[in-house]
Every structure is written in structure tokens, then in C-alpha cells.
Amino acid sequence: MKGISKKWFYEVISIISVLMIVISVVLIAIIYRSYYRSVETTLSSYSGNFISSYFSLRDSETQFIENFTGADKMEAWVIDKSGKVIISSSGFEIEQTDMPDYNIASDSSDGEAMWIGRTPLGEKMMAQTAMISSSGGEYAGAVRLMISLKEINMQLINISIIVALFCIIFLGLIIFVSTRFYFKTVIGPVRNVCSIAERIAGGDLDARVEQFNDDDEIGLLCEKINDMATELESADKMKNDFISTVSHELRTPLTAIKGWGETLLQIGATDPVTSRRGMEVILDETGRLNGMVEELLDFSRMSNGRMSLHIEKIDVLAELDETVFAFRERAVREGIELSYNVPSIPVPANADASRIKQVFVNILDNAIKYNHQGGKVAVTAEIRKPRTLVITFTDNGKGISADDLPKVKEKFYKADSTVRGSGIGLAVVDEIIKLHKGEFTIDSILGEGTTVTIELPVDDIPDDEVNTDEQ
User: What is the architecture of the domain spanning 217-303?
Assistant: First the structure.
């Protein structure tokens, strides 16, 4: 045995052993006490009868001895006031001997005493002395009854042996049952879980715990290990997809930049139109690369809990206006109708302007990117009490399936791998909105479109100032 098996065995078996020893000792002590009380009761009950018989037959010693009914169980002595044994139920003359119970009884107020000890021959016995009072109230002698404890002690020894054997057998059964069942149902599965966990840690994400009981804590642990392995496998797949996607996303602008750079190097200043077109492409692709790098940096800060905000008083709708204006040309170029309907008043709020604009850019970029030629994108905003700005982005593009919808805010996740993007944009958006104490929700139907809603806390605006401006 090792590990938890050894710990369990030594701790539990030790506790059970100590408990059984304590119970056995207490039980044997109770039995001993019960037997000895029985002997004491017997001595007490015979003591009175013996004294009455002695007084009625004191002139006939032989008849007194013959009429003593307890002779088969005990020996009785009659002792005079000088402490000498004058009559014995055995019929033999008794030599002078130590009688501790007689000495105690003669000095006590009730005239009785009990003593347990050994005879000069080493036999254990119990004796009771009862003093006999004269008509004047003085002690005239005593009666002493004695019972050998040899047979009783033998019985008690046998009982102790039986109790000890029972404890040993019971402890053996516990060890056997624990070894056969506890180790099989608890230790075995735990070791199996450790083995599977070690395989998962070594990179085998297909490893699973098989054949476990669902009804106990071990089963729950096995289930959680399997769930963890599934999540790790999914995360590993998303990581690999993310690396592949980012590599592709980086390769495309780099290829364009390299190609146009080589072209510009070859043509020199001989073709100004081509040179200008090449420079525009290089600048556009450089901007794409910069945006991707910034997105990756934001994701890194978010993962490490280091994303910070530069809070200042801003006009949220002004940032939204700039973003929509920047996307109009792209929407026209891709054949998408972009409508805009917002209140025509400033909406002040304590926020980070660049981060809020980043949110709008990411959402509008997705609305156009996952749309189709002839599609529509609508941006609306309204002020709701108390002090809340609600901005809605609605499109009639591809939409998101019910299975993918709960996962689109997760890092690396992409519902459609055929569309460019790193899969971390919405995760960054969600983090920024949370840092602004707002809410970010997505509703979508596959094939029909998507609605993104952002709620941000803003300063209080009087009702009479609220109106909309459609563009």
C-alpha cells in the first residue's frame, strides 16, 4: 500500500482498533463488575440467614454445620469477640489467620465489611464479615462468609478471550472488506483518474475516464475530469485554428506589401499612377496589420487583466457618428445599405473614447463582413431612463446558428472560418463594455440576420432634449 491507501489504512484501522480496544475493556470491566456484584449479593443474602441459624443452633455445633445451606458455595466461620474462629462450616479447625474484613467491620459503625484478596495458598477469594451484637449493644463476635473466586475468574478469562477473538475477527473482516471493496470502489477509480490526468497533462487530450459510478463524489470527479479534457481539447483546437487564421491574416497583407514593394522598386518613377496605386495598397495593408497587432495586444492585456481605460468626459454619439461615417464608403463599395438613426443631441458619459470607438468599429466591421451584396445594416440609438444609452446594430446577413451563438464571445471562436478575422474581436468588445459597466448582447437567426445591442451608462439628459436624427 502507498499514498492514500496507506494513509487510510493506518488512520482508519488505527482509530477502529483503539475504539474496539476501549469498548472491549469497558465491556469486560462491566462483566467483571457484574459477576463480582453477584457474589457480593450472594454473600449478603446468606449472612443474615447464617446469623439466625447460629443463634438458634448455637448449642449444637454439628447440627449448625449440617443445617448450613450454603456450604456447597461458600465457607462460613463464627468468630468470637477475641477474633478466634470457634466454628467453621467445613468442620475443620481453623488456625489463626489474617482477616482484614473482620478488622474493618469491628471498627465500623454498621459492623459489616467486604474484602477481596488471596488466601495464604494464593487462591483468590471474596469475604464478608458481619459483627454479632450482644444484648448490651456491644460486639460479641462475628460471622465471616467466604467464596472462592477461582471458577468465576476462569469464566471471566474465557469471556475476555472470546471478546478479544471477536474483536480480532471483526477487525480482520473490516480489513478484508476494505481491501476488497473500498480499495476497488474508491482507491482504484482515484488511481485511474490520476493516470488519466497524467495522460492529459502529457498532451493526450483524447484520454477519458471510463466505467465510473455517477452516483457518488468519485463519479462526479471522473465526470469533471472528462469535461475538463473536452474543454481542453476544444481550447486546443481553437488555439490551432487561431494560429492558422492569424498566420493567414498576416500573410495576406504582407504578401501584398512585398509584391507592391518589389513592383515599385522595379518601375521606379517611370509610372506615377502605378506608383501611387502601389503606395495606397501598401498603406492600406499596413493599416490592416497595425489593426491586427493592436487587437492581439488588447487580447493579451485582457487575458492578463491589464486592460485599462483612459476615462474622460466624451460624447458617445459623436464617436458613433465618426465610426458610421468611416464605414459609409466601404458599405457603398460592397453594395450594402447603411442606415443611421440616433438622437441629435450630445450624450455625455464618463468613458474611454478610443475604446468605445473600437467597440463600434468591431461591431460594424462584423455587420458588413458577414453580410451580402444588397444587404442592409441599421444603426439606431435611444436614451432610456434611468441614464442609459441603448445602441442597436441590426443586419440581414448570414446570421449565427443557435449552437454557435453562446460561444461567439469566447476567445478564438469563429462561427464561420471562411471569413477573415482572428476570432477575438467580440471577446475584446465584451471586455471593454464590462469595464464600462455596460451590457453587450447578441441575438441572431441563421440565414436571417443579427442584432447586436449595447447598453452604456450615460449622464442624465432631460426628456425635452431627446429626439432622433435619421441619416
Answer: Orthogonal Bundle (1.10)
